[in-house]
Each structure stands twice: as C-alpha cells, then as structure tokens.
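Folds abound. Consider this:
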Amino acid sequence: MTLALGDIAPDFKASTTEGPISFHEWLGDSWGLFFSHPKDFTPVCTTELGAVARLKPEWDKRNIKPIGISVDPVDDHGRWAADIEETQGSRVNFPMIGDPTLEIAKLYGMLPAASGDTSQGRTAADNQTVRNVFIIGPDKKIKLILVYPMTTGRNFQEILRVIDSLQMTAKHRVATPADWKQGEDVIIAGSVSNEEAAKIYPSGWRSPRPYLRIVPQPK
C-alpha cells in the first residue's frame, strides 16, 4: 500500500505499552505524531525515543499525541523503555505499538507484502524501511511523511517547525517560506486573489513579484 499526503491514515487496532488502542479513536481530535522503528534495542532509535519524551511540553502545547511503533512485541518495548530512561534520562511517556505480525508496518507501506507475518528472526537491516514519520491531522488525513535511514537520527526540532507551519496554514490562507520559523513573515497563498487579500490584510503586503505576497504571520 502506497500512502500519499491527503490520504486518510489507515485505522487499526493494536497492543501498546499503554494497553490496547483503536488508532483513530485514540487520536480523537488531536494531531498525531506516528513514528516507526525497525527493531527494539537499536542505538539511533533509543536516542530518538528519549528526545520525543523530553519534548512532551512542546507536543502538549500543540495538541500533538506522539505514538511509536516497532515490529517487536510489546513486552520487548517495556524492557527497552528501561534502557531509554537510563541512557537518555527521560522516561517514555507515550504509547509504543507492538507489531510482531508486521501487519501495521505493511498497512502503512513501510514493509512489502511479501515480508512474512512475524518479526521473529528479522534483523534491523531486514526492517530498515520501518523509519517513517507520519503527521496526521484531527481529520485523520496524512499531512507529512518523512523517511529516514537507520544511521541518521531524526530532527525533532524540524518536525516541530513543520507542525507549526501545518497548524497555522490549516487556520489561515497562507504558506511558509524556506527555513521559516515561528513568528516570521509568511506568504499569502496563491489561491487567495488580490481582492480577497486586501480584505484580509487591509494594511497591504510586500510583493517583490506579483506571485510573491509577503505579510506578517497571522496572530
């Protein structure tokens, strides 16, 4: 299954470190940060899970629910969590999905259908494509897909920046330029005519080109 931006994130039922969930019901009206790991007790993922745990105040501020998935069983996740807390200084404070049958990894297109139906005997290299980040909106649609190699730790500050852009542009008819950060100028969306823009921004805008209309970030 190939997923694209704007698709409904596939629903599923799963066991997690915080009990059984039905994914869409668990998300509720929140945004979701769904990020995957090829195997438990892997070094880069250990640092990533600690980083997400430390960022809890930032997720809470943005109404984001983080949830992780590894293709190993939930019992292994519990033992891994102890290592994460000891080595990263942060207790995992969000659910981790167990996917020992590979069903969810395949549902989200992270493993091919021919991968079998068990995580037993599989190495991290066998599962190296299970390294995705999906940002999912309250409408259950996929807003962002990132795929990282196993050797590169994810940049959660960048993920926060993208979430800030996604949440603002969902409310206002604007887009964010390259390297944009919270509080900086934004661009009036191309779908907004000049007549409409004049009503929304009566103070006007900077326009170095007719198609590039720059305004302060909406409050």
